[in-house]
Amino acid sequence: MIMNDQQDKTEQATPHKLEEARKRGQVPHSQELVSVAMTAAFLASFSAIVYQLGIEVISHSHWWLANADRLATGWNYLAVQAIHSIQQISFALMPLIAALIVATVLSNLIFKGVVFSLIPLKPDFKKINPIQGIKKLFSRRLLVETLKTILKGVLFAAVLYYFFKSHYLQLLAIGSLSPTDIPHESIQLMLKLGLSLFFIMLLFVLFDIWYSRYEFARQMKMSHREIKEEYRRREGDPTIRSKQKQIQRELLKKIAALGNVKDADVIITNPTHVAIALQYRPKTMMAPVVLAMGKGMLAKQICQLARKHQVPIIRRPVVARSLLAQCSINAPIPNSTQADVAHIYRWIITLPANKVISI
Fold first, then answer.
1. 40-93, pLDDT tens digit by residue?
2. I want to staple 264 with a disulfide (CB 3.0 to 4.6 A). Which of 22, 124, 174, 277 is the partner?
3. Alpha-carbon span 309 to 289, nearest angstrom
4. Could you give all domains of the chain from N- to C-terminal order, each with its CATH number?
């Protein structure tokens, strides 16, 4: 049953399901994008601070070598100077650290947007389920990641090979340079190598962004049954909604029919909870027609309009309930009630003209 349900998931996820998944912290994620952003931030920030960092390192190294005899006098002095040197070099590295943090945050915000959820932090025993672990070993995502890693390793190895092949003379010459020239030459070579590897990473990040979104959309797919269940949860059962709409239409029809009360011959009540307005024209009607009817507030309004327009009101609880249950507006009364209604009409005919009654 589960396998069949998984195979039936052919429909794209609804916006509601995607929003619920986002609230749980389930969004597409591209580790390649984070890696390439950090690499770019490292190359840019390191090239900007490398000279100042080099000056700091050389300055402190020179001081330590020049004051080696003083440092040997005691551990306290050595510790104080070590802390001072570490602090100064750390301050010089702060722009690099800040750039890496900003690159990580921005890359996630650009790709995933603002996502805040504590649900991923909750313990989930399904994650330590050995069966689930075995399934992950043979998952499509792991296969793609494995192939991608192999291809990336091959391309990186090719770049390293051609880099060392074309720059091996410069690498060998570094050993013969003066101490002040070694950092400059080393940094230049490192930046060249870093940029070469960066462009390869950029190709992989474009693929990873596409595949992450594709895989997430595939996992979020829904079956027709799930879409119907979601619709029922959000909008209610279609049968119930149809019934509610029908009730609303009937109520609107009853309210609109209040304007016909002035043309009624008689109002039959229950006496206060039900009111039925009837009209009978022998030349055009086979039986009396219901002009308006209602319960509760509608019944009170019908009676108020009847008094206003001098329409007789007669209390016949049994007849009123029977008409309410069997009749509809603008339709003739059923045969089962015609005898009782005829008796009421015979009584109305005997009433004096222009005399309003309410009994």
1. 888 788 777 777 777 777 787 777 777 777 766 667 777 877 888 888 888 888
2. 277
3. 19
4. 10-231 (no CATH), 253-349 (3.40.1690.10)
